[in-house]
Amino acid sequence: MRRSNMKALAPIGVFLVLYLGLGILFEYVLKIPMGFYYIPIVVCFMIAILVACLQNKELPFEEKLAVMGKGVGDKNIITMLLIFMAAGMFVGVVGRSSAESVAYFMLSVIPARFAVAVLFVVSCFVSTAMGTSVGTITLITPIAVAVSQASGYQLALCIGAVMGGAMFGDNLSFISDTTIAACNGQGCAMKDKFRENFAIALPAALATLVLTLVISLQVQPGELQLPGYNLVQIVPYLLVLVGGIIGINVFVVLLIGIVSGSVIMLVTGATEATVLLANMGSGVTGMFETSMVAVLVSALCALIRDYGGFEALLNGTKKVFKGRRGGQLGMGLLVGAMDIATANNTVAIVMANPIAKEMAAEYGISARKSASLLDTFSCIFQGIIPYGAQMLVAISAATSLGCTVSAFEIIPFLFYPGLLLISSLVFIYIIPERASVAASSENKQ
């Protein structure tokens, strides 16, 4: 029987106190804009690892290094890092003009009175294709501001629609770092997780669309003035999206996207060859911090597991959450708590992964279901916290264009995260996953 030791969880507490405490100090006490993103998350994890190394004095330091090395060298971690870099290269190649083309095309062919709904749908598509909610918000928020100013729709409503759509794609995209982290951490194929997730996300998205239409159709909008666009540039996104859905290997899908995107950008004259190479490099570099966090969390979790921390947490969870349904809710709340503390849904998933995998085995939850729960609940919480990157970037983008809007004005219009939570609970308690031998064996692989 594995030992149980609550003290082994102390390094996680140290990290949360450092990161969350300093973030609150910078953002709300010192009033530093986007203060959470001045906190070096890698440094906080390094301090947490130091604390973990000072524990378990029975184990020599050299053996602790071996334990960390084994955790970092796991096949799923290596795969995750490679996919992170390939996804970064793809986003670097296609750039922002492709996403803008999607938005301007839809806004040009659909009547202005549906403009807010179009913002939501465009954000859903762009974030699913690009794999980044922050990137989508950065690209589409200026368009949302223009729509608000030209049409008379409330700015908070327009930004809320963009943020909701961005979280839809963050949750479902094959190249999203949250999807990559959840699937590799739980050991399931991306297409299986997508199918599991899509059934939960689609009702929430449709309900959001209806609610957005009901509210926005009460306003008589003005005419929109739109710039030109190039629809050919959306082809790489479509290839990646379709390739992922039909089950092509993620590396092959990303390679297709990178090659097709490079050819289209060069042929259309959107990018010069030298700039294209530089963009590839910057795209990969943009994944550096996420990759380092994955490495450090893997090392930290290996030490915590070896010292009995995960066993203690699992025992505590079993006392509170009973049965498979309770286990699923517990898993969702676990990653949600991690997200509230870190304000980063990818980091939250990476931290929760090893604990969730043991919970999945204990409660008989399939790998695709556990991956879906981690990604979904992390996106629910990340989509509404006022100090998350998504909210801060949206406010910053609007402010840079001369518009003033606060997080607490936007939050009432964040329909999608709330409806996604309701849909998730329905699928946990009313339409639960059936227990099966296949599900159990899937988690033991």
State the distance separating the first and last CA atoms.
Answer: 20 Å
**Helix-strand pattern, N to C?**
HHHHHHHHHHHHHHHHHHHHHH
Tell me, briefly, the overall form: globular
Number of domains: 1
Q: What is the share of helical residues?
A: over 70%
Estimate what percentage of residues fall within beta strands.
under 5%
Number of strands: 0
Number of helices: 22
**Could you list the spans in which at least 5 consecutive residues all have pLDDT below 50?**
435-445
* SSE class: mainly alpha
The value of Rg in angstroms is 22 Å
Write down the overall mean pLDDT. Answer: 83
Largest sheet: none
Describe this structure in words.
This protein is mainly α and 445 residues long. The protein has one domain (6-444). The protein is 76% helix and 0% strand. It contains 22 helices and no strands. The protein is globular, with a radius of gyration of 22 Å.
Brief overview:
By secondary structure, the chain is mainly α. The chain has 22 helices and no strands.
Give a topology summary.
Blueprint lengths: L9 H20 L11 H14 L6 H12 L2 H20 L2 H13 L5 H16 L2 H19 L3 H18 L4 H10 L3 H27 L18 H11 L4 H18 L5 H13 L2 H19 L2 H12 L2 H20 L2 H19 L3 H16 L6 H12 L6 H4 L4 H15 L7 H8 L1
Helix pairs in contact: 1-2, 2-14, 3-14, 4-9, 4-12, 4-13, 4-14, 5-6, 6-7, 6-8, 6-10, 6-11, 7-8, 7-19, 8-10, 8-18, 9-17, 9-18, 10-18, 10-21, 11-12, 14-17, 16-17, 16-18, 17-18, 18-21
